[in-house]
Amino acid sequence: MTTTLIVNGTRHEIDLPPDVPLLWVLRDEIGLTGTKFGCGVAACGACTVHIDGVAQRSCQVALGDVNGPVTTIDTSRPEPALAALQAAWVDHQVAQCGYCQSGQIMQAADLLATTPYPTDAQIDEAMQGNLCRCGTYPRIRAAIHDAATKLGEA
Amino acid sequence: MGIGKTTRRAFLIGSAAIVGGIAIGGYVVSRPAPNPLHPEEGATLNPFVLIDQRGVTIITPRAEMGQGVHSMLAMLVAEEMDLDWQDIRIEHGPPAKAYYNSALLKNALPIHAYAASDLQNTIRDVVGHAGKLLNLQVTGGSTSTVDAWDRFRMAGATAREALKEAAAKQLGVSASDLKTENGAVIAPDATRLPYTDLAVAAAEVSPAKPALRTPDQWRYIGKSVPRLDQPAKANGSARFGIDTKLDGMRFATVRINPRLGGKMTSYDDSAAAKMAGVEKIIPLEDGIAVVASNTWLAFQAADAVQITWEDATFPPQQDQIWQGLEAAFDTDANATGREDGDVDSLPAGATVLEAEYRAPFLAHAAMEPMNATAIYKDGTLVIWVGHQAPIAARDMAAAAIGIDSEKVTIHTTIMGGAFGRRGEIDVPVYAAKIAAAMPGVPVKMTWTREEDMRHDFYRPATIARYRGAVQDGKAVMVDGKIAGISCAHQAMARMTGIAMGGPDTAMLEGAADQPYAIPNYRIRGYLSDMSVPVGFWRSVGASHNGFQFDCFLDEMAQAAGTDPLEFRLAMAREEHAPSARVIETVRDMSGWTGKTPDGVGRGVAFCMSFGTPVAQVIEVRDESGLIRISNAWIACDPGIALDPRNIEAQMSGGLIYGLSAAIMGEITFDGGEVDQWNFPDYDAVRMHNVPQIAVQIVEAGGRIAGVGEPGTPPAAAALANALFDLTGKRVRELPLNKHFDFV
Ligand code: FES
Ligand code: FES
Which keywords are on file for this protein (chain B) (predicted)? Predict the structure, then answer.
């Protein structure tokens, strides 16, 4: 039995047991490696994707439970908030090793979707599930504020 | 003669000239190692510059683990070659002797970096060349830019002059009438001759030793250039080791004995072998590997293999390990890192104090779990791995499966953090063994976070016993004894297969080598030979000494009745002016007065490591019983600031890495197994508890020094000293969350 998934607008028929986490379907089966494995236990946020527009930890969502279209960092047609964040990430030179950043950006995109001008406290609240061992937090914060401002001006 | 649209290979094979390109490397390394770039790959002007019809590729043979080293090395070549920043391509290149790290060995010499005279610098340089003999293509010790500073600029300048000579011949003019600009030689009549058109002819030229650009001519050095890796890291297209994709690839994981150092006694894979997606279960000496059609299916099956393990090879309980370290103090000192004056004859009336400090084992916990991909076919092995020492990785992987090193190719990928962990050879060795058991099939091995956390080479736990004396507000004596397990001995044995002994002064860095005038100043090291696996962790010895030594100085300042910042400043002024300037800078940045309002505490700390003095001030606030780290100020002097924005990132990242360890980092053992499994029990600073950070770079004009590690050592001390200021409670062990509740 196969499972149908829509990822970044493309339809995939997946022939894997339904308990395989979405993360490992994306990475190993579909070959979309932008979404990262960090912990497997919902403790780091590296695997964050959007399901039906909402940020989810893909290491915690079983293939059989995916109930909407999936967007990952690899999308070639990012919606405006995601595109603005990606640009701000480059402007602010956020990444060090960069491994956590796919998840950071997907989480931040979810934040801006609900909170167009987040305060520092709202950024703390939304982003504290996303670990960065390189310690890029100050620039992540600055880039989120900047992307929010630019989106507001657009 | 244009390179035009011919295919890369066709162009190159058709060109005899390229073979001669190697000669230009002569100025790059004083006794040139063979140029490892194959002629068919492009016109190789020297081991660091490759030109083909697409343009210039700069070979940046150091591990990119987040510190921006690829862009920094490219900057040095681009500066001399007049390349346009957006046209630059970079490649890590193959493991090769030409890419040895001379700076790493310099740090192994018993000369304190800050005290080196020119003569000593010369000696260090000469000995540095021995690194080539030892095959030290290693990224570590914050040495990359130090090592590259002359070599990469010279590589760029040599290539520039060769291109100019080639153009001069073609135009029938003198090379001195030509200039270079944005990837082209410019003729006197303003005609542009792109480097790509000149490369083949240039590879035949051996130019005279070129002059390096002077600082007033610098276009990139000292400015902030956009890191070349940023766009790919913002859109998910950056390929880390874990993202390696090969046709027909299978997915594997390992389960290694959690009682570290022990082997496997027996295993039963009858249930696991029947699980979904499982293709093969491979017994290893100290565990098993599962190969499956999906990484997660491999994880599940590995859980289902029943394994009986041998015991760990060291005392299994944490308290026994502490006792083992205490016992080391009863042995002869392994090393004396400093012996100034006489610590036993004190002036009458001096106040003496003593304290014992402890630092725990720490995991590296790089964000990207350990992984490597390999294929073994027809007696040859190819490995894709993010590695800090690719030559050692190649040689040990070859040895593990009984083939010659020449039969192994290593592709060094970018790394999702490393912090020292990716200098170890265990990961490529396991990947090689798995590949050898699956001939012809590419296999990607990924460790679970738990496997990564519980099979690290940990920052050694240490105990430091200090005795100090103060008089008239000043330090008159400090005498430190540091007990630990030698990561230098262990790591060298693992990398070379040869047991190493001798004095380990790396364990004393951050205590013995501080630029302080203290008339009676002695630091000695004591080693335990317990086989707890330990390794280099961001800033190595300075990571524990930065806490223990500096906090003890804070206690001495307190006993002396002197402001702690002024206390350190007075000692630095007499010994090393750049360090004093760094302390003054952090004083001014933070508006240090030595006084804080109720509910606010401030601490200062200083550590010079890897040639870069760093001073930090941390401010903490009491928020209804919870501690918030509100601010941090950092001043540093890396000699020459290649890229201020990158230095700012490394300094604040280094501080945060140090704070994570200081607040909550601890690895402990029970039954020979590590107690911590994953981020829930080995967490780090996150968005909500990171302070506001300000960084200021001082350039006092010294030799260029690294920035990847020196931001880490003072962090724990600055925080502990701030907590003392806030609460009056002096804590002499880490992590601090055993004694304080943080936000
Ligand atoms: S991998 Fe999913 S939260 Fe860490
Ligand atoms: S940039 Fe390295 S973990 Fe975040």
Answer: Membrane, Transmembrane, Transmembrane helix
